[in-house]
Design goal:
- The protein is of the alpha/beta class and 264 residues long.
- It has helices at residues 40-47, 72-85, 98-109, 130-137, 142-150, 154-157, 168-177, 183-193, 197-203, 221-230, 246-249, 251-262, and strands at residues 2-5, 8-13, 25-29, 52-56, 91-96, 114-120, 208-213, 234-239.
- Strands 1-2-4-3-5-6-7-8 form an eight-stranded mixed β-sheet, with helices on both faces.
- Helix 10 links the parallel strand 7 and strand 8.
- Helix 4 packs antiparallel against helix 5 and helix 5 (142-150) runs antiparallel to helix 7.
- It is globular and about 45 Å long.
- The model has no long low-confidence stretch (mean pLDDT 95).
Length: 264
């Protein structure tokens, strides 16, 4: 699905299904340096099981054009505007990593519209190491290597994937390598400088489900556990034997938790 917003093209995966007025909406938001393809298996499932799906590419990512957004707040505002344009009155937001911060902020800004938020790989604050930030600022390939190293459990580093012939880490590297210069730094820095979480949590009224890999080194589960205790209606679940990239490392376990989270 493609449409224009703020003078730029926006792409959103729909699971190859036509949106229907009698179905609720689920909007998926990718993480730093990623695009809608990280959600492909999930968008198809939920599009065939009762949801209108929008798996968006943020500006300058994937198949969306437009200037990069450099703050979580700006991304949340952009998502809100897209929902306005598409006349989406109620929605479930699902975000991973940077996308979890965007969903978190967007839910706080839209208490009447967002009926649930599902946050994977969440941490607040979401600090990024100086070495990774500097490498990304310089468009150094070492930034991609660090993203792959820190973002996956050691089993994925060894090539473990239940899909024969598909490497979890190599797939992530190829996706990161497609980005334009400056994109990865813009995304990582947006995560690093986001400081509105303490204000946002006070405004959250919808149920919030936190899902973390139990071996996540980038956003350790304890951060999500702490926030789950602070939100009005928060719950916590862990994906066993997974690092930060839960959708790629443990797709079936992540799927089961998403199905549970999106159930009425």
């Amino acid at each position: 699905m493609e449409f224009d917003y703020r003078g730029a093209k926006v792409f959103a995966g729909t699971g190859h299904q036509t949106n229907a007025s009698n179905k609720p909406y689920a909007l998926f938001i990718h993480g730093a340096g990623m695009d809608h393809t990280v959600w492909l298996a999930y968008e198809r499932y939920f599009a065939q099981h009762g949801f209108n799906v929008l798996s968006i590419d943020l500006p300058g990512h994937g198949r969306s054009s437009g200037a990069l957004l450099t703050s979580v707040e700006a991304m949340a505002d952009w998502v809100s505007g897209v929902l306005d344009q598409l006349n989406v009155l109620q929605v479930v937001l699902i975000g991973h990593s940077m996308g979890s911060l965007v969903a978190f902020e967007c839910a706080a800004r839209n208490p009447q519209r967002v009926v649930k938020a599902v946050l994977l790989g969440f941490s607040y604050p979401m600090r990024v190491g100086p070495a990774l930030l500097e490498a990304a600022r310089n468009n150094d390939s070492a930034a991609i290597d660090m993203m792959v190293l820190f973002g996956h459990d050691f089993r994925a580093q060894l090539g473990g994937n239940r899909t024969a012939g598909v490497s979890v880490v190599n797939s992530a590297k190829r996706l990161l390598e497609k980005n334009v210069a400056g994109l990865l730094f813009a995304d990582l820095n947006a995560c690093n400088v986001y400081e509105n979480g303490d204000t946002a949590v006070e405004k959250l009224t919808c149920p919030v489900v936190f899902i973390s890999g139990d071996r996540d080194k980038m956003t350790p589960p304890r951060a999500a556990e702490n926030m789950a205790k602070r939100v009005l209606n928060g719950t916590m679940a862990k994906v066993k034997r997974s690092g930060h990239s839960v959708m790629a490392e443990q797709p079936e376990l992540t799927h089961e938790l998403l199905v549970e989270a999106l159930s009425p």
